[in-house]
Amino acid sequence: MFMMRSILVAIVFMCSAPLFAAEHPICISLFSDAEVLGNNAAERIVEVIKEKQQAGQTSIVLGLATGNSPIPTYRALRKIFKETLLDLSSVTTINLDEYIGLATEHPQSYHTFMFNELFNELVATPENPRGIKRENIHIPKGALQTERDLSQDERALLNAQFPGPTGNLTKQEQILVAEHRANAYEALIKQVGPIDLQILGIGRNGHIGFSEPGTPFDSTTMVAKLTDNTRSVNAAFFDGNIQEVPEFAITMGIHTILQAKEILLIATGQSKAEIISKTLTSPLDPSIPCTSLRLHPRVSFYLDNEAASKL
Ligand code: F6R
Question: Which of 109, 202, 263 to mutate to test the pocket of ligand 1 (most atoms within 8 A of CB)?
Fold first, then answer.
């Protein structure tokens, strides 16, 4: 029923005209509110999965984001999975990013977010083998408090660079291991990819993933230092306390994101209106990372009325 309603209120609004030769138009779909947008984004995800399954593709790869923007999409996807025979057993998921320094089970880790918002109800079980196989769910590992958070390889890497007892890891030690994990994550994406459909949100400062302003367009998965702006926006998830927001994250780089076959960016609310307008009209510029999306041949923006209000 909700599918019918979504289709009726969704308006394909426009495709932006490319500003420079190397650019592609971005197709913009406008929705009456975040819920309807989420229903339509979930339907697009399902459509991609089914198209690939029908074409005989044995592994379908979804790139996933966290944050407020995709929550209605994930809710709709859970509903579709529950109420239909949708088969996710050939789906692999790759998340964009994870904070460095939070335990995996920390309430604000992106790992916790993804399991609460999506995977708990979508993961395959003996009773429901249509779900996503646990081993095909990938989220960068950000836990790096003590030596106990390290694999054997990581411990060896650390001992080679910083010999002596460790216990709690210093920031320098955390970054060293996180860089190692970022490189391994990039290799994993290459191995299981390419990503068929990448879901993105957008930061008010134009970040995609945690590729913050100034990140080169040719960047791959890396350790990113979060800007004060991002940390203060995300403090809302940490009882308003910016000191609790990690300073660093592992994130896909811009080049990594642009390797996806298709990209669907979700933006809702007035706070995104300015950056959505800049994404389409500013010159391509690493200081506004989202402008890089104009270099990709297949990008859709799903916007609510408020996010689209400055177009
Ligand atoms: C999340 C991510 C970020 C968010 C962005 C918008 O995995 O990579 O780029 O998409 O910060 O966050 P929300 O949706 O909370 O406004």
Answer: 202
CA 45/CA 152 separation, integer angstroms: 37
- The C-alpha atoms of residue 212 and residue 243 are separated, in whole angstroms, by 19
Q: Model confidence over 231-284: pLDDT tens digits?
A: 999 999 999 999 999 999 999 999 999 999 999 999 999 999 999 999 999 999
What is the DSSP code string of 5-30? HHHHH-EEEEEPPPSSTT----EEEE
Packing angle between helix 71-83 and helix 34-54, nearest 10 degrees?
50
Interatomic CA distance for residues 19 and 201, integer angstroms? 23
pTM for the model: 0.94
Where on the phi/psi map is residue 47: left (φ > 0), alpha (ψ -120 to 50), or beta?
A: alpha
Residue matched to tokens 């134009």: 206
CA 297, CA 284: separation in Å to the nearest integer? Answer: 15
User: Can 97 be counted among the known catalytic residues?
Assistant: yes
d(CA 209, ligand 1 centre) in Å: 7
Please provide the size of the chain in residues: 311
| 207 a catalytic residue | yes
Pocket (CB within 6 angstroms of ligand 1): 65-69, 96-97, 201-203, 207-210
Lookup result for tokens 């309807």: 36
